[in-house]
Write a sequence for this structure.
């Protein structure tokens, strides 16, 4: 959060254009406190993995001018995405708020399940990856932090999943560390 606020503050010193922040949970209204023209700040939430997922949420903060939302909706379409306009700046926006219960269930089932088998099933149903591959792709620390955030913002039930603690505490964060639920070969250049 601190880094995002510093970057947005610095960018707003050099532009009068639209500033779109990629965020899956952080409220745009909160970030707007750090930019000079909050009416030009909006959210643009790309879903993981962005190269495979067409959906993008375009989020209006309390001070965002709607004409900028419409401009970014057009930009999203021009780059081949399917944008949805989010007019309420709330925890998880639309998609994450709807999928948060699923996130919790898969987290709670992690120690009692066969992650590879579950992922294979979901892939066989046409999804680009299964839930546990997605956890590793997004980062187990990100999933963990999202659940803690939802526990504060949506329901204390989201704090019940402790299955990610050992992974995060051991630095097994998924693809970015080479190890998470799965072992990933790191490509170094």
């Amino acid at each position: 959060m601190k880094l995002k606020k510093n970057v947005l503050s610095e960018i707003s010193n050099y532009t009068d254009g639209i500033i779109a922040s990629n965020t899956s949970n952080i409220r745009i209204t909160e970030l707007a406190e750090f930019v000079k023209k909050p009416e030009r700040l909006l959210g643009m939430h790309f879903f993981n993995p962005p190269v495979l997922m067409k959906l993008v949420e375009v989020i209006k903060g309390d001070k965002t001018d709607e004409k900028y939302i419409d401009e970014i909706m057009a930009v999203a379409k021009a780059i081949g995405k399917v944008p949805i306009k989010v007019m309420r700046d709330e925890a998880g926006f639309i998609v994450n708020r709807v999928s948060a219960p699923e996130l919790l269930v898969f987290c709670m089932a992690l120690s009692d399940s066969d992650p590879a088998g579950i992922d294979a099933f979901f892939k066989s149903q046409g999804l680009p990856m299964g839930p546990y591959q997605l956890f590793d792709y997004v980062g187990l620390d990100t999933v963990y932090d999202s659940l803690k955030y939802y526990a504060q913002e949506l329901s204390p039930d989201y704090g019940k999943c402790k299955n990610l603690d050992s992974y995060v505490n051991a630095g097994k964060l998924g693809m970015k560390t080479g190890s998470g639920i799965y072992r990933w070969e790191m490509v170094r250049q």
Remarks:
- The longest helix spans residues 95-109.
- The chain has a mean pLDDT of 92.
- The helical segments are 2-12, 28-31, 66-78, 95-109, 115-124, 131-138, 140-153, 165-169.
- The radius of gyration is 18 Å.
